[in-house]
Structures are given as C-alpha cells and as structure tokens.
C-alpha cells in the first residue's frame, strides 16, 4: 500500500533499488550506461574502449550498476516478430489516489508495452499492443477498462512510427558516442521479414533467457536451453542481423542528469505532417516520434537535461517548424514499463519494495 492508501499489486521480482544510488552516479558510471545504451550486450572490454577507462574498473562499476538495479538490460523480440499488430496510445484519468494502483495493474498486463505516470490532463499514459489487428481491440480493453480506479479512458491509434532511439543518453557526450544507424527503428514495415514462422522453439527459449538478463552469456544460455554455445551465438546473431530483436538498456533519465522527460502531442497541418516528422526526428533529444490517427498529430517524446533546455527546444525549434499549429504536453514523472519490460526502480522510488 502506498502513502495515499492505494493498494499496489505484489512485486513481480525486480530488485529493490535504493533511490539514493540513482542520485550519485559518477561521470564514469554515466558513460558506462550510455555505452550500454548503444549496445547492451557489448563486452566490458568494448565498453572500456568506448569510455576510455581501464577494463577492470569498467567491469567492477558496470556489474555493480546491474546488481543494484540501476540499469537493466533486456533483449525482447521486435514487435513484428510476433505477427500482425496494431498499437494504441492510451490516456487515462483515475479516481483520486488510484493512479499508482492503475499503473501497476497495467504493468502486469502482457499486452501493455509502456506505462508512465504523467502531469497535465491525464494521470497515466500507456501503449497497448493488439495482436492480430485493431478489430481485436474491444476484447482487450474490456478487461483493462474495468481495472479498479479507472475513471476515463481515451485511445488513439498509432499510425506510423518515425523514430525510436534506444541511446538517447549520447546527447550528453556529443560526438564521443555516435549514433549507430542500426539502432534507429522505424516502422513495422521495415521489420516485415520478422514473422512468427522465422522463430522456432529454441529461438524463443534464447529470447526468454535474454529477457530476464540481457547480458547473460551465450554459454549459460546454451546450458539452460540444451544447445551448444556456438548454436546459441549463431541464432542470436541471425535474429539481431535481421533486426528481429530489440536490446533495451533501461535507466531512469534523471540518473543521467536528464530532468525533463516529456510527451508532446504536436498538432500539424496535414500537408506538412511528413516534413515536420523528418525535422523532429533529427533532434537527439527526441527519443520517440509517431503519427497519431486523431487531430493530425505527432506524438513526440523528448528527453532534455532540464526544463530550461526543454523550453529552448519548444520555443526555438518546435515553434518555428512550418506546419506546427500547437501542442499539448505531459511531463513524465515516472515510467514503470518500457518495451514490455518492467523497470526495476519504480517501486523503490515510490517508497516501497
């Protein structure tokens, strides 16, 4: 139960995180995290080369960050790997004091990909993945809308994804952490070769192990699934080369000194939608960008160092883009789930294990 009396479901196994740890990461810690955002399965030697520190120091600090739950690396199948789907942005108002319990219930639902607590007109924003197409949506939302505490539910179809940046932290260090083009993911069409028939039971077992621990060794996975190490490595490399897996490095943005994590719904003149999207996608601070069905709008997630930098981005960049007619915004207070993976720190940050 949290401080305002709402009940929070039992914890599913993520380690408790001391919130104080998140506030005292050294510059080296932050550089290690940013390197892992580029490739969560990079060897410690490769990370050491990237950050310019001794391997032994990087191993010690990196392993401590993982053990403390400050960072979580997970490997998950790309969305299209499980067949046809539609994605919906869900914006929820809750009864007073029920926002945390509602968000926690959404975390537990396997169809929910992303959950965050926000300011503004809504209390909770989430992304719901509907397998098999939008016609299945009514069957799913019946259960979700009946969650105790849900007062108002608004859904919007995500029509097209322009950008997903897994390594947004690189903006802290400029050219020292160049973006890898293979880490920028666009639409499901780009992943159309990833289909359920391209995965066998062994592939799924490998991915299951890597979801639990994205840095698990191939040898340990081989022992777990009953294959030899070279087979596991070859299968993983094939899936990664085909862009059928996403490697997620999860860390709260504030731990990297990024204090302004914001969701903007940008209204755009229909004839300028593509041009505005291309311009916004160029900014390192833009982590996610997608077109919504309603209101000729773009959903834009921005991660900035402070409210000052966010104001600068809005007034000096966004406001001057030809075709932008306005926007609404919600600051993300705490995200509980991203890429279908629960963050290991949200319960501790709210004061319970």
Model description:
With 353 residues, this protein is α+β, with helices and mostly antiparallel strands. The chain contains twelve helices and eleven strands. Helix 2 (27-38) packs across helix 3 (44-51), helix 7 (201-212) packs across helix 8 and helix 8 (218-225) crosses helix 9. 39% of the residues are buried.
How would you concisely characterize the structure shown here?
With 353 residues, the chain is of the alpha+beta class. It has helices at residues 19-22, 27-38, 44-51, 55-67, 99-107, 137-145, 201-212, 218-225, 229-241, 273-281, 307-317, 346-349, and strands at 72-77, 85-94, 112-118, 124-131, 150-164, 245-250, 260-268, 286-292, 297-304, 324-338, 341-342.
Labels describing this entry:
globular; alpha+beta; eight-stranded antiparallel barrel; 353 residues
Chain-wise SSE layout:
Layout: H1 19-22, H2 27-38, H3 44-51, H4 55-67, E1 72-77, E2 85-94, H5 99-107, E3 112-118, E4 124-131, H6 137-145, E5 150-164, H7 201-212, H8 218-225, H9 229-241, E6 245-250, E7 260-268, H10 273-281, E8 286-292, E9 297-304, H11 307-317, E10 324-338, E11 341-342, H12 346-349
Antiparallel strand pairs: 1-6, 2-4, 2-5, 3-4, 3-10, 5-8, 7-9, 7-10, 8-9, 10-11
